[in-house]
Amino acid sequence: MQSLFRGQLPELVLFDLDGTLLDSVPDLALATDQMLQALRLEPAGETAVRSWVGNGAQVLVQRALTGQQDPDISSIDPDLFERAFTLFLDCYGKCSAERSQLYPGVLEYLDWLSSRDVKMGLVTNKPIRFTIPLLETFNLDRYFGLVLGGDSLEQKKPDPLPLQHAMNEFSSMPDMTLMVGDSKSDIRAAQAAGCPVVAVTYGYNHGEPVADYAPDIIVDNLLELL
Ligand SMILES: O=C(O)COP(=O)(O)O
Ligand SMILES: [Mg+2]
Questions:
Q1: Is the pLDDT of residue 4 over 90?
Q2: Where does Mg(2+) bind (predicted)?
């Protein structure tokens, strides 16, 4: 990996959360199904929810209401969406850390970077109100000098804005910044921001291989980056 950074470590590493550091789908699926059941709709199940995670809570709810990856938003009754979204936020707020788990290698890799004084930021599409408590629960908050949720800025990934904002905050140039993520949104945001990007194979990429989006490096475990 050092070949990407002039033989050195990156100055800044930006991490995605869901599907990269945290296997959060069990709880996202629980909250999605609780929402659907409260609306007297069929539960979706974990496999479907796994392919719907990655574009933030609103899009997850739209996908769950339509059963479609690319929902026609105009077909969703706005009142139903509002009820569904409120239910989802309420359910997920209660269960977000019940069954979610860190992936193998995550703590070791964060510790390794931290011991080498590499700066780290977290850039997720998850709403910030869930992100901060989850980082605290899993004792990850201590690693990140900046945490951006999907609703922290005007745009979320795949838009490069959150990555550009983070690089600006840390005064790091794109060619010395590494993005680590699990989905095409992470890869596209990094490519648009001009940063090298590592994709993990174990996360959620809407059922598609990450290789289809040409990340610079693909790993099955973050420890392969040591
Ligand atoms: O909440 C989501 O949809 C995904 O969040 P992520 O950007 O951490 O993968
Ligand atoms: Mg992700």
A1: no
A2: 16, 18, 182
